[in-house]
């Protein structure tokens, strides 16, 4: 039996008794030879597939025909899978067998799955759906991160870093060079964007740029948004749209007129929060330059283009939802009424700052203005583009640590277009920027404006606002005036009727964390008073005045 079925090598017959002397079973020997042969065969399959021979695929198909009946055998299965992986077009019959068998489908390479998915949208959707959900969960978790800072905000990671995320890399691998699968993913994203979740727009841009990074021209060359997205990506990296790139972007936009579906995709790419952030920061910088030049907003072509792109991005949802692909007209009054009103607020501020530096006998008795121009209030309520700019102006004055302007503007945010001021992205950035004025929280007046005048006006109906307030207090609790802190703790206690199994769990955790921090602060305060010797007397030394 051994002679008939063993390895027929004359030189081997005399060597086998040595293995017997070492107590090595023949099964172990034959198994190791089998494994070695299988590895060599799999390597040879890869070499044939990568070769230049005209009949290379017919050789692989021949091997597939011989090996496929044994696909269920664990020892032969890797060879079959290797052949399937390297065939650019697997026979339809074999694909159906693999698709119908869950075990085979699970172990087959992504190259084989792509061929199954391209003709089976429902199955591809089942594979992609968990990844899309995971992406949204990750983005929302980033907005509620425990890091409350301007330096480590939602917009801190560079575009290249974001594209290294698990979901983007997995989707890129699943798509490969398959245009049909790429189109399917885009269709899923367009459909899901109807839920008004802007993170799907971010994924749309990240996916295209991830394929661009891998130099997959088969897809990049057929996506009409590729060059526009590539140029915008460079702007997002710099967090500014310069004049040269602005003209490039305008050329792409003007060149797509009449291409309806393309306009819908461009609007999605511009609706990406990272793109919006870059556009509005560029608008703010443009306005600063116009102020210094005593120029009007309508006289700046760069500003008008930035507003046009912001308007197209802000109108993305309406366009995709209504399926009417027409570039929205920018309301002229945004340029002729709202921007001058906003610039007048900046001028008020500059006048007050200059006055404070004058000798006392030259100062006027006029107090810092508390009211805002009517046009400013009206546009915040009624116009999406104006509201976006108004919200970013708040960040601008917070960066300047301008307490007066902040106290003047925050109450105006209670009533904004579509409650944009109570959205997660704005609140995430606002809480981070407010840390720059942490010392001001010792004043009850400042606390009253921030909390009573704005944040607490909607926290009871909007759990996300409640969470953002607690996030900020966990970071700033030691700076807040004690009387305000006591009142806030009572107000912010999670209500009993809203305690669901999932929704309020993070809320409870944040409140508990804040309570623990306050307890720890109370315990440490008396300890400092009782043991002054350990303090080296530093608590009695007054800080030198910066003035």
Summed up, what is this model?
One of its GO terms (biological process) is negative regulation of transcription elongation by RNA polymerase II. InterPro entries: COBRA1 (IPR010405). With 547 residues, this protein is mainly alpha-helical.
Explain what you see:
This protein is an all-alpha fold. Among the domains are: 10-119, no CATH class; 335-360 and 370-493 and 508-513. The chain is 66% helix and 0% strand. The protein has helices at 2-5, 10-21, 26-50, 56-67, 77-86, 92-100, 102-107, 110-117, 121-143, 159-162, 166-175, 179-192, 199-213, 217-220, 226-238, 243-255, 260-271, 273-292, 301-314, 316-322, 332-357, 374-382, 384-399, 403-409, 424-434, 444-452, 463-476, 482-491, 505-530. It is elongated and about 115 Å long. It comes from Tetraodon nigroviridis (Spotted green pufferfish). Pfam families: COBRA1. This is Negative elongation factor complex member B.
* Percent of sequence in beta strands: under 5%
Rg is 32 Å
Low-confidence stretches: 498-503, 527-547
Describe the biggest sheet?
none
Q: What's the helix count?
A: 29
**Strand-pairing-aware structural class:** mainly alpha
Shape: elongated
Query: Which H/E pattern describes the elements?
Result: HHHHHHHHHHHHHHHHHHHHHHHHHHHHH
Question: Ends: how far apart?
Answer: 102 Å
Q: Let me know the average pLDDT.
A: 89
């Amino acid at each position: 039996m051994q002679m008939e079925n063993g390895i027929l090598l004359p030189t081997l017959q005399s060597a086998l008794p040595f293995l017997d002397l070492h107590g090595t079973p023949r099964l172990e020997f034959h198994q190791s030879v089998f494994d070695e042969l299988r590895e060599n065969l799999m390597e040879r399959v890869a070499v044939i597939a990568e070769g230049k021979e005209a009949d290379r695929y017919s050789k692989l198909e021949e091997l597939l025909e011989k090996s496929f009946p044994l696909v269920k055998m664990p020892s032969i299965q890797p060879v079959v899978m290797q052949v399937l992986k390297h065939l650019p077009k697997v026979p339809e019959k074999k694909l159906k067998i693999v698709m119908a068998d869950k075990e085979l489908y699970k172990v087959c390479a992504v190259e084989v799955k792509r061929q199954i998915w391209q003709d089976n949208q429902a199955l591809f959707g089942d594979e992609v759906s968990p990844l899309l959900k995971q992406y949204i969960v990750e983005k929302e978790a980033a907005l509620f991160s425990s890091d409350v800072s301007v330096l480590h905000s939602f917009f801190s990671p560079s575009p290249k870093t974001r594209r290294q995320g698990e979901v983007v890399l997995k989707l890129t691998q699943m798509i490969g060079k398959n245009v049909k699968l790429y189109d399917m993913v885009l269709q899923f994203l367009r459909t899901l964007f109807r839920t008004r979740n802007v993170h799907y727009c971010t994924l749309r841009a990240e996916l295209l740029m991830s394929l661009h990074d891998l130099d997959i021209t088969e897809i990049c060359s057929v996506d009409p948004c590729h060059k526009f997205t590539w140029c915008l990506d460079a702007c997002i990296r710099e967090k500014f749209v310069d004049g040269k790139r602005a003209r490039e972007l305008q050329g792409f936009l003007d060149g797509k007129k009449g291409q309806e579906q393309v306009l819908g995709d461009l609007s999605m790419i511009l609706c990406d929060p990272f793109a919006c952030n870059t556009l509005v920061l560029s608008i703010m910088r443009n306005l600063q330059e116009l102020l210094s030049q005593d120029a009007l907003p309508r006289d700046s072509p760069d500003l008008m283009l930035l507003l046009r792109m912001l308007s197209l991005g802000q109108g993305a949802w309406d366009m995709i939802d209504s399926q009417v692909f027409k570039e929205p007209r920018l309301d002229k009054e945004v340029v002729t009424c709202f921007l001058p009103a906003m610039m007048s607020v900046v001028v008020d501020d500059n006048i007050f700052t200059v006055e404070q530096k004058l000798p006392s006998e030259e100062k006027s008795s006029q107090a810092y203005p508390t009211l805002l121009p009517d046009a400013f209030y009206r546009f915040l309520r009624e116009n999406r583009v104006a509201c976006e700019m108004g919200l970013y102006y708040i960040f601008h004055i917070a960066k300047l640590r301008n307490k007066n302007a902040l106290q003047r503007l925050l109450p105006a945010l209670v009533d904004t277009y579509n409650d944009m001021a109570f959205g997660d992205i704005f609140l995430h950035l606002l809480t981070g920027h407010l840390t720059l004025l942490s010392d001001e929280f010792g004043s009850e007046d400042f606390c009253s404006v921030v909390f009573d005048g704005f944040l607490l006006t909607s926290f009871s109906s909007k759990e996300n606002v409640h969470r953002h307030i607690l996030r900020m207090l966990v970071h700033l609790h030691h700076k807040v005036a004690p009387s305000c802190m006591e009142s806030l703790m009572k107000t912010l206690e999670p209500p009993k009727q809203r305690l669901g199994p999932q929704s309020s769990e993070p809320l409870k955790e944040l409140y508990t964390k804040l309570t623990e921090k306050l307890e720890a602060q109370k315990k440490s305060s008396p300890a400092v008073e009782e043991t002054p010797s350990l303090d080296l007397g530093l608590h009695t030394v007054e800080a030198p005045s910066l003035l």
